[in-house]
Amino acid sequence: WAEERTQRRRCKREREIQQETGLSRSMFWKWRSELVKLHDVFHVYDEDQSGSLSHEEALMLLMRTGMQPYSQHMSSIVEKFLEDRDTKDSGEVDFIGLITIMDDIRRYQTRLRARVLMKEFRRFDVDCSGELNHKETIALFHAASIAPTRV
Prior knowledge:
two-stranded antiparallel ribbon; single chain; mainly alpha
């Protein structure tokens, strides 16, 4: 019973956040599992309670959530995403802008990982068949220090 009540409160809070921020239906469903936590963290970093984060505050929030990488290349990519979402050229980003930036970062990182994985796959796909045969799979396991054992 208590669990059900907690769930109802959470759903109510999610809907309140959606209404308060003007979050679209598609973004709501995409971010629903993280919405309350992100909204709360957003308000922690919104030190002046303006409803917007400065680029510096947004970068600190992204770092706290693990989305602001430390490499110079990724830092410049994140800075570009911030500038792109700052449509008023105010040096600030609202809650919707922030989660849109987070979405941009996730998509970019996914594409980057896919390229790296495909490069590695091609390295072991010696016969260029688009699949790893038994011999190629064994080579991959040995290279990854995962020696297969017989059952």
